[in-house]
Amino acid sequence: MNIELLEIELHGISGTITNYTRNPYIIGYIESLKRFLHDHNEKMIYVIVEKLVNWYDKTIDEIMLNDYISNKEDHLETKKLLESVLANELKQV
């Protein structure tokens, strides 16, 4: 995934994550991601995306097992999108 596609998907990514958590670190990462995308700061975009992927790695099982979460597929898709950003970054190195 390139940066432009991440910009297109940002609203959905942001909504999916912020509707699930009120963790101030994660909310801060989302806000930082918006700012770094606006500024085209690719290095920091990848730092933030990596933090979000790490959060999902720790949280996805809890999300999938939670009977009150109705948008589980959205979380899987969001995690996949974020992981594709990292995979793209690694190919460019």
Termini gap:
15 Å
* Overall tally of structural domains: 1
DSSP summary: helix tally: 4
What is the string of helix and strand elements? HHHH
Helix content: over 70%
Mean pLDDT across all residues, rounded?
A: 93
Which properties best describe this structure?
single chain; 93 residues; mainly alpha
What does this 3D model show about the protein?
With 93 residues, the protein is an all-alpha fold. It has one domain (3-92). 85% of the residues lie in helices and 0% in strands. It is built from 4 helices and no strands. The two termini are 15 Å apart. The mean pLDDT is 93.
Secondary structure blueprint with pairings:
Layout: H1 3-20, H2 24-39, H3 42-65, H4 72-92
Provide a concise account of the structure shown.
The chain contains 4 helices and no strands. The protein is an all-alpha fold and 93 residues long.
